[in-house]
């Protein structure tokens, strides 16, 4: 009798949205270990021509897309001169095209911020396996992703290390957006960031360099600042509610400085399941790429004896007001998480550009929120409009802080 061939053994086509970033390069590192399983079909970036060109040389994708049209033209020219046959696309249309190519099975969503929403949603609507590192779109419109996945059959797999850990601790038939009554609580862990031990008065002087020097993870600048304000945990709280069908009250944020327990799930019978590993994003990336199989990721093995102990603390709401703002937005629902996210993106960029101080980040967010009513329409157009309105208000607040600090300095 001949066995029926049920699995397709050809390498799966992969698109990387945001291939030049921290998650993007870690993903390429994992993919390069498994040429028999995966084939890079498309790479994308915003403006970094040199890095994308280097990746094209190495991975020979069919497509490269750049958000920035001038950068795309330069890339096309450079590729032509090197006689590399890669089709170059540009703008949001280019990103959407490579997110939905018929030859692509898996799309890694690793753009930073709300800019990644449309291509990630396009991939979901096209029924792809979508690996979600880019948490901001889920914060803004997780329900749209869940609905789209139910309609198209897309597989939404979390890559954010905590959410990937929670997913691994869920029942095996769990799918994103389900609610499981046997799951009672989620413990969402976080390292506490670079300012975990800083006294409150010092935070006013914190610089972008200090904020980006994370003790446990090497990441892009935006998420590094979010980790320092703890807004990253706040965004992750909302992300967890969307992905795992829980309320904000069911999510407990736990500061765990060793960053080895990536999160825990508490069941009705008192069992608490956790996922552990060295803090290296290649583990969740490899997990989501191969799920439900397991593949090598290149990550160093965990040594429990070297580690010796685990610590847990409650986060300090006084020094880190972003957490409170995120819980409030999570409870308010509607467009509140979108406004929170947009104001945060503007404030973080302004901090990185040295226009506002570290402790002004939550102030900009709170002032933006107080000027905008919470909308209950959460269809795509309303979400994008709320994002836009919040950015405009937040920019005005930033300009005001900037003006005042110049006056004080001068
Ligand atoms: P990064 O800044 O290192 O990389 C961002 C990528 O997005 C780059 O490839 C850049 O070219 C692209 N990009 C930026 N703006 C764009 C735009 N307007 N249009 C199109 N492309 C654009 O960021 P990162 O640290 O890799 O984070 C990516 C996402 O993953 C974020 O949402 C972050 O919160 C999430 N995440 C990151 C980590 C991590 O360890 N770095 C962990 C968990 C979650
Ligand atoms: Mg995380």
Question: What do you see in this structure?
Answer:
By secondary structure, this protein is α/β, with parallel strands linked by helices. It folds into three domains: 12-159, 3-Layer(aba) Sandwich (Rossmann fold), CATH 3.40.50.720; 177-278 and 302-317, no CATH class; 333-410, Rna Polymerase Sigma Factor, Chain: A (Orthogonal Bundle), CATH 1.10.1740. Helices cover 48% and strands 14% of the residues. The protein has 17 helices and eleven strands. It has a seven-stranded parallel β-sheet with strand order 4-3-2-1-5-6-7, sandwiched between helices. It has a four-stranded mixed β-sheet with strand order 9-8-10-11, with helices on one face. The longest helix has 30 residues, at 380-409. It is globular, with a radius of gyration of 21 Å. The model has no long low-confidence stretch (mean pLDDT 96). The structure holds nicotinamide-adenine-dinucleotide and magnesium ion. Nicotinamide-adenine-dinucleotide is lined by residues 18-24, 45-46, 48, 67, 110-112, 115, 133-136, 160, 217, 219-220, 223, 281. Residues 160-162, 236 line the site of magnesium ion.
């Amino acid at each position: 009798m001949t066995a029926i061939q049920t699995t397709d053994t050809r390498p799966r086509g992969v698109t990387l949205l945001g291939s030049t970033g921290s998650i993007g390069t870690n993903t390429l590192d994992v993919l390069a270990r498994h040429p028999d399983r995966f084939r890079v079909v498309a790479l994308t970036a915003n403006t970094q021509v040199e890095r994308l060109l280097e990746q094209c040389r190495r991975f020979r994708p069919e497509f490269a897309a750049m958000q920035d049209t001038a950068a795309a033209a330069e890339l096309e020219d450079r590729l032509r001169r090197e006689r590399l046959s890669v089709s170059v696309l540009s703008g949001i249309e280019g990103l959407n095209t490579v997110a939905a190519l018929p030859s692509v099975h898996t799309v890694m969503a690793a753009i930073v911020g709300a800019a990644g929403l449309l291509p990630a949603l396009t991939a979901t609507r096209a029924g792809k396996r979508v690996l979600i590192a880019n948490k901001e779109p889920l914060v803004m419109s997780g329900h749209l992703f869940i609905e789209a996945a139910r309609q198209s059959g897309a597989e939404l797999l979390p890559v954010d290390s905590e959410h990937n850990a929670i997913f691994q601790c869920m029942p095996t038939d769990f799918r994103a957006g389900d609610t499981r009554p046997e799951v009672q609580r989620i413990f969402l862990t976080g390292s506490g960031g670079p300012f975990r031990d800083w006294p409150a008065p010092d935070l006013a002087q914190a610089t972008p360099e200090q904020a980006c020097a994370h003790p446990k993870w090497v990441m892009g600048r935006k998420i590094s600042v979010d980790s320092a304000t703890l807004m990253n945990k706040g965004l992750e709280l909302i992300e967890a509610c969307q992905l795992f069908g829980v309320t904000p009250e069911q999510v407990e944020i736990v500061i765990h400085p060793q960053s080895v327990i990536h999160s825990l799930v508490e069941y009705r019978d008192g069992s608490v399941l956790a996922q552990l590993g060295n803090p290296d994003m290649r583990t969740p990336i490899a997990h989501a790429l191969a799920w439900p199989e397991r593949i090598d990721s290149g990550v160093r093995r965990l040594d429990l004896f070297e580690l010796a102990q685990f610590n847990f603390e409650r986060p300090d709401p006084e020094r880190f007001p972003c957490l409170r703002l995120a819980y409030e937005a999570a409870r308010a629902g509607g467009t509140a998480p979108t406004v929170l996210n947009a104001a945060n993106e503007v404030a973080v960029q302004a901090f990185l550009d040295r226009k506002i101080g570290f402790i002004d980040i939550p102030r900009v967010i709170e002032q933006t929120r107080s000027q905008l009513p919470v909308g209950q329409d959460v269809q795509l157009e309303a979400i994008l409009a709320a994002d836009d309105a919040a950015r405009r208000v937040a920019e005005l607040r930033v300009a005001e802080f900037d003006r005042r600090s110049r006056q004080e300095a001068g």
